[in-house]
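Query structure, 479 tokens:
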């Protein structure tokens, strides 16, 4: 771990194993943090906040963020390879993640000097203003699907705001952020400003959520754990931001560019092995192109090259863990009883090791089926037919989630009407998944609340202080 500027073991001496999902071999052993370690990290973060970071000039905080970005770019190859070995994802995708992580640090390095308040025209002889201040110590808990990138999304805005951080990576994928932590002091981060603690959810995560000196919890993960975190944060009335799951609709009207649409459906669902919170796993297709669409999507899905992520021609790697592979395989069984299979549907037989599943397409799926309502977090697409625009919107919104959605059409009026009707925090037109650090990220409904990225991301770490300066020297004279 990385606590108070130094490598650290767990106080209990406990450890857990970290795997390569393509070989099923242990590639690292990490400390299993418990409440005592969280306490130590929070103490360090608290001291670092009050003894300096809070009042460190924004320019200086920004420069440190730029240098972190430079370190990621300088170590891109090494970090991407480690990310692939630990998460299973194709190396080409890991390289994109490293670039995005560096860009995120650069964006917030620039934003650090653009956090400012407002002067308010109050009706008195006074100057009133609202100023922004960092909240203090932030606890951050992230998932395993984009390990270093999710760490960047969390750490960068918190540091730009002037907060100090305790970040807990997912127990499956702690390696890249620990690798980057080797450079924290070299880029000028004072000890204790960013602490990385490793461990599982109930042991380390819950202790972080419960700690009285942590002012804010930022979480990305499952809706189930999101609920636990919100309850845990209630005792000390901590601020919470939650980016939870989704079951995002990807809507294809018959006037969409057909070839591009089929590609877009596959990309929307299968990128990163489908281990994506915004995966477009409900594919809604208009009836007049439905059969042709199912056939074309199935034909293309069967050509997706599975393999170890380090092979440059691999398009889909193994899932992150045996647990996740078994979970997804469970849904393949459920789906076989609820709908028809157009492609995949099982665990591929050509690999002697690795937690692979076949890219799978179910069709004739009813929107009330479990495979249409529950987040699977694997390469599983459910195709659902619809008749017209109203039908598409009704089905699209018939879910507890509201993270993302996409609509494909050449009709600009229809596109905008659908955009306006979708209950989702992110909506794409004629694409699905591209997102950039400048734009807000987060969901409606059970997909959580709060927004990451852009200026929204930094707001999550700021308090607002009202200041009133009386300019009237006359006695108040009330009593
Ligand atoms: P998954 O089940 O797919 O691993 P989770 O939502 O359980 O997704 O995990 C996301 C992150 O939340 C991980 O870092 C995990 O350790 C953490 N986590 C899991 N359970 C809890 C909990 N009860 N309290 C705090 N963090 C938790
Ligand atoms: Mg879990």
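Result returned for the query:
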């Amino acid at each position: 771990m990385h606590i108070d500027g130094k490598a650290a073991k767990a106080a209990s001496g406990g450890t857990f194993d970290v795997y390569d999902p393509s070989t099923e071999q242990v590639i690292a052993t990490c400390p299993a943090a418990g409440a005592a370690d969280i306490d130590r990290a929070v103490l360090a973060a608290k001291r670092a906040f009050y003894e300096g970071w809070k009042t460190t000039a924004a320019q200086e905080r920004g420069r440190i963020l730029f240098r972190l970005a430079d370190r990621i770019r300088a170590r891109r190859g090494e970090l991407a390879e480690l990310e692939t070995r630990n998460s299973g994802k194709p190396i080409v995708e890991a390289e994109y993640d490293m670039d995005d992580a560096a860009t995120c640090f650069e964006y917030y390095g620039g934003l650090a000097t653009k956090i400012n308040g407002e002067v308010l025209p109050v009706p008195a002889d006074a100057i009133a203003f609202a100023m922004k201040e960092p909240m203090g110590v932030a606890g951050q808990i992230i998932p395993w699907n984009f390990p270093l990138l999710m760490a960047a999304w969390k750490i960068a805005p918190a540091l730009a705001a002037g907060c100090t951080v305790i970040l807990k990576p997912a127990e499956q994928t702690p390696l890249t952020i620990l690798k980057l932590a080797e450079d924290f002091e070299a880029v000028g981060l004072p000890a204790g400003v960013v602490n990385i603690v490793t461990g599982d959810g109930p042991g380390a995560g819950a202790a972080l959520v419960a700690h009285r000196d942590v002012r804010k919890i930022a979480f990305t993960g499952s809706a189930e754990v999101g609920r636990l975190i919100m309850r845990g944060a209630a005792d000390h009335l901590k601020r919470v931001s939650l980016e939870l799951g989704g079951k995002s609709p990807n809507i294809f009207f018959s006037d969409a560019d057909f070839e591009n649409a089929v590609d877009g459906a596959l990309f929307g669902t299968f990128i990163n092995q489908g281990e994506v919170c915004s995966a477009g796993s409900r594919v809604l297709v208009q009836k007049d192109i439905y059969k042709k669409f199912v056939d074309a999507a199935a034909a293309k899905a069967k050509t997706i090259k599975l393999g170890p992520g380090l092979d440059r021609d691999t398009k889909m790697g193994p899932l992150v863990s045996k647990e996740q592979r078994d979970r997804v395989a469970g849904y393949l069984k459920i789906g076989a009883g609820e709908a028809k299979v157009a492609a995949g549907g099982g665990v591929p037989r050509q690999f002697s090791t690795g937690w692979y599943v076949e890219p799978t397409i179910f069709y004739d799926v009813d929107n009330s089926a479990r495979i249409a309502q529950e987040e699977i977090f694997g390469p599983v697409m459910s195709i659902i037919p619809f008749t017209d625009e109203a039908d598409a919107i009704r089905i699209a919104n018939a879910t507890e989630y509201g993270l993302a959605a996409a609509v494909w059409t050449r009709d600009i009026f229809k596109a905008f009407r659908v955009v306006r009707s979708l209950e989702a925090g992110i909506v794409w037109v004629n694409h699905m998944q591209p997102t950039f650090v400048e734009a807000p990220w987060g969901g409606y409904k059970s997909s959580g609340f709060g927004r990451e990225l852009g200026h929204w991301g930094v707001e999550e770490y700021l308090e607002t202080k009202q200041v009133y300066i009386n300019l009237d020297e006359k006695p108040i004279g009330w009593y």
